[in-house]
Amino acid sequence: MENMKNVAIQAAKEAGKILLENLGDIGKIMVKERGELVTNVDKQAERKIIEVIKKNYPNHTILAEESGKLKGDADYKWIIDPLDGTHNYIRGLGMFGISIAVEHNGKIILGVIYIPLEKELYVACKGEGAYLNGKRIHVSKNKLNKASIIYDSDIRPKEKESIELKNLGKLAKHTFCVRMFGSSARALSFVAEGKIDLTIDYHDKPWDFAAGAFIVEEAGGRVTDIYGKPWSPWVKGYIASNGVVHEEVVKLMQS
């Protein structure tokens, strides 16, 4: 596990260098499905991460945002997002990062998030707790009426009010404040660190939240799907919280 952790950290930091070197000097911006954007920098950073992983673990499977699934040993799967918060990055906003998780036989065992502008490295191994730059971190203890939440679901104009907007209205009435950051890596790392009490997303992909959700759990928090059931990287929608507010939020959203 120690070597695997070091490889993930190395890959994240090398990708981070690429992001910083190209910040404000993006060569190409392309449109993906549902209006999502991708840049040449996303792809360059992803290639670097894959290169580092393959050099050390040539038979492991890799699931990457831009490359899809690369063949390998199904026992170990690396789930990577080379640039979480691409839209922020394009606009020169600092809320972006690299997310790397390792799944073994269907369970996440390692999570790494690197926020390069802040030089913040979040690391968690199964059963060992969560750390920021080597220092143990924990979730907050705030109750819902004092909770700051991040609601980063994909909210876009529709003919009828969506369930996302309805639940946003419910939460806004019962919490201290609501924020939208545009980066799951940043949102989840803040929950793990106790700076934010809760984050919710309906549309994230595995590479967006696998590492972050795991880090939240190792920091003492709780993660479920939208309905309060056990999470995995393959659920559609999740709630990640300090645990204190979790049941109340699930009930509120289902009311």
Question: Summed up, what is this model?
Answer:
The chain has 255 residues and is an alpha+beta fold. The protein has seven helices and 15 strands.
The CATH class assignment of the largest domain is: Alpha Beta
Low-confidence stretches: none
Assembly annotation: single chain
Tally the beta strands: 15
Number of domains: 2
Task: Give the fraction of residues assigned to helices.
Answer: 25-40%
Which sequence of strands runs across the widest sheet? 4-3-5-6-7-8-9-10
Shape: globular
Keywords:
five-stranded mixed beta sheet; 7 helices; Fructose-1,6-Bisphosphatase, Chain A, domain 1; globular; D-Maltodextrin-Binding Protein, domain 2; alpha+beta; 255 residues; eight-stranded mixed beta sheet
How would you characterize the overall build of this protein?
With 255 residues, this protein is an alpha+beta fold. The chain folds into two domains: 2-136, Fructose-1,6-Bisphosphatase, subunit A, domain 1 (Fructose-1,6-Bisphosphatase, Chain A, domain 1); 144-254, D-Maltodextrin-Binding Protein, domain 2. The radius of gyration is 17 Å and the shape is globular. The protein has helices spanning 2-22, 40-56, 86-90, 163-174, 184-193, 206-218, 246-254, and strands at 29-31, 37-39, 60-64, 68-70, 73-84, 97-104, 107-115, 120-125, 130-132, 135-137, 148-151, 177-179, 198-201, 222-225, 238-241. The chain is built from seven helices and 15 strands.
Architecture blueprint of SSEs:
Blueprint: H1 2-22, E1 29-31, E2 37-39, H2 40-56, E3 60-64, E4 68-70, E5 73-84, H3 86-90, E6 97-104, E7 107-115, E8 120-125, E9 130-132, E10 135-137, E11 148-151, H4 163-174, E12 177-179, H5 184-193, E13 198-201, H6 206-218, E14 222-225, E15 238-241, H7 246-254
Parallel strand pairs: 3-5, 11-12, 11-13
Antiparallel strand pairs: 1-2, 3-4, 5-6, 6-7, 7-8, 8-9, 9-10, 13-15, 14-15
Helix pairs in contact: 1-2, 5-6
